[in-house]
């Protein structure tokens, strides 16, 4: 039953405050409350089939489908009422409805007062769409009343304010449009790793700069979208110094306009994770704790469970990167064990890219510590997922990591076929990292490492290529995930 699945997800993402409010509201109602028993079954974590069986056993004359629908509707009503109390935008929409009701009942002064409240609050919070609705409703009311209370100059003034709001909305939309395209490219294609790919983004950059040049008003929304776009662009193209600069400016903008931060603060979160990504790729791990603490502050907020869980996942990933990439494998293993119950057992509630990132942390650590059995067990969770992870950019990294794992297990037939498959899946000459080309050559000759001459040749090539690779900003993105160069050297130097 589709609605039951949606209901289970809805209940599992409720915060403590939301659950408490729902129970209090339900207790005020009279009559048989079968839906509360259903809620208890879902909160207890019973499987779908068992939930149905237990409910029917307790209420043989009751309708399971009706209980599901009633519980779903009751929860949504409760959540909407909660949002109306704490969300400015929802509250103002209710005030607009209030103004309509008052005007329909000829309470004209009260209706205009309600619209004035909406205009004042929505202007303060830069909610242009709401401001536009309030001002258009005002003109509609005045029109119905034959504009008896204003003159022509005042009318034109009100009309021009609407024109300015429309210009602001249009500018914000174009900014948002370009930022969405940039994010989509990043999500589907991964970080830029060639100059050609960087040039492909120039059309977006020029369009974004053109919007800035043609609109002089510096609202919070336009500044936020501009800084989000520029910082994401520089991070994507490997200019980490500029990315950090723009992300820091973005955080300062949020800090100066805390009343405008969304609930949940998704853009604020993007700014902090953007800085952490830049610092991680640049290897500036000592600078990361300050921004990780910013994430911990967000995690203390009263937000939906799934949002908080994603924030905790980010905290873990950046803490892990700081430990793993500096060779502190013991600390990384301790961190994983600490998160076993709270994070890794709740993987299914996370976004797919986050699930993949978390599984890859386990594989990386187990390969680095020589625990290949555990590495293979977690790699199987990735490869057995079918096409679930296949379209994610990080899946390419997973394939490279699996190559290393299978090579350590001396499964050379798999490695040879997988290398051919990877080469077929991308434009080998134009999109392949130098590190990947070196890695493929090394793996294809791994079975010959018992020959000293082969080891010497490979070591010489690796050490001659290393300086060029380390200077390349695009190669650093790959090495930040896993130090493939050090793994190859270790295999040669400690070959037995």
Keywords:
single chain; 496 residues; mainly alpha; 26 helices; globular
Could you characterize the architecture of this molecule?
The protein is mostly helical and 496 residues long. Among the domains are: 2-86, no CATH class; 88-150, no CATH class. It has 26 helices and no strands. The radius of gyration is 28 Å and the shape is globular.
Number of helices: 26
Element pattern in H and E:
HHHHHHHHHHHHHHHHHHHHHHHHHH
Which of globular, elongated, flat, extended, rod-shaped describes the shape? globular
Query: Could you tell me the mean pLDDT?
Result: 85
Residues in β-strands, percent: under 5%
Q: How far apart are the first and last residues' alpha carbons, in Å? A: 57 Å
The chain-level structural class is: mainly alpha
Described by strand count, sense and barrel closure, the largest sheet is: none
TL;DR?
The protein has 496 residues and is mostly helical.
Q: What's the arrangement of secondary structure elements?
A:
Layout: H1 2-12, H2 16-27, H3 34-43, H4 48-58, H5 64-86, H6 88-104, H7 108-124, H8 128-144, H9 152-189, H10 195-199, H11 202-214, H12 220-236, H13 240-256, H14 266-282, H15 288-299, H16 305-324, H17 329-338, H18 352-368, H19 372-383, H20 394-408, H21 412-425, H22 428-431, H23 434-444, H24 452-471, H25 473-481, H26 484-493
């Amino acid at each position: 039953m589709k609605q039951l699945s949606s209901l289970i997800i809805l209940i599992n993402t409720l915060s403590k405050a939301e659950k408490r409010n729902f129970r209090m509201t339900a207790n005020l109602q009279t009559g048989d409350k079968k839906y509360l028993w259903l809620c208890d079954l879902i909160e207890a974590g019973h499987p779908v089939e068992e939930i149905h069986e237990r409910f029917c056993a307790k209420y043989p004359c009751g309708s399971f489908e009706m209980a599901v629908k009633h519980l779903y509707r009751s929860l949504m009503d409760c959540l909407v009422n909660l949002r109306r109390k704490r969300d400015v935008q929802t509250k103002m929409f209710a005030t607009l409805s209030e103004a309509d009701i008052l005007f329909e009942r000829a309470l004209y002064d009260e209706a205009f007062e309600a619209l004035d409240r909406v205009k004042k609050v929505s202007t303060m919070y830069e909610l242009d769409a709401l401001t536009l609705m309030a001002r258009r409703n005002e003109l509609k009311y005045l029109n119905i009343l034959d504009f008896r209370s204003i003159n022509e100059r005042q009318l034109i003034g009100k009309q021009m304010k609407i024109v300015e709001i429309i210009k602001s909305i249009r500018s914000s939309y174009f900014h948002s449009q370009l930022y969405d395209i940039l994010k989509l490219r990043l999500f589907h294609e991964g970080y830029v790793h060639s100059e050609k790919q960087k040039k492909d983004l120039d059309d977006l950059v020029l369009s974004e700069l053109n919007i800035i040049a043609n609109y002089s008003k510096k609202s919070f929304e336009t500044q936020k979208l501009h800084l989000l776009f520029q910082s994401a662009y520089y991070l994507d193209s490997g200019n980490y110094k500029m990315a950090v600069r723009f992300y820091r400016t973005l955080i300062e903008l949020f800090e100066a306009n805390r009343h405008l931060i969304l609930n949940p603060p998704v853009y604020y979160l993007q700014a902090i994770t953007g800085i952490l990504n830049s610092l991680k790729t640049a290897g500036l791990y000592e600078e990361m704790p300050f921004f990780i603490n910013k994430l911990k502050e967000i995690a203390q907020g009263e937000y939906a469970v799934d949002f908080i869980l994603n924030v905790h996942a980010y905290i873990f990933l950046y803490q892990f990167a700081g430990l793993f990439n500096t060779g502190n494998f013991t600390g990384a293993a301790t961190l994983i064990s600490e998160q076993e119950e709270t994070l890794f057992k709740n993987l299914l509630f996370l976004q797919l890219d986050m699930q993949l990132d978390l599984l890859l942390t386990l594989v990386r650590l187990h390969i680095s510590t020589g625990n290949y059995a555990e590495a293979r067990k977690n790699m199987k969770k990735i490869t057995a997922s079918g096409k679930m992870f296949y379209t994610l950019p990080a899946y390419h990294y997973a394939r490279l990591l699996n190559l290393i794992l299978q090579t350590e297990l001396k499964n050379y037939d798999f490695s040879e076929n997988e290398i051919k498959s990877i080469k077929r899946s991308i434009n080998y000459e134009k999109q392949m990292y130098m590190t990947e080309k070196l890695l493929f050559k090394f793996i294809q000759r791994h079975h010959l490492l018992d020959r000293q001459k082969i080891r010497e040749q490979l070591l010489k090539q690796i050490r001659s290529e290393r300086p060029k690779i380390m200077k390349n900003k695009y190669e650093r993105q790959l090495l930040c995930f896993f130090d493939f160069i050090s793994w190859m050297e270790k295999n040669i130097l400690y070959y037995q």
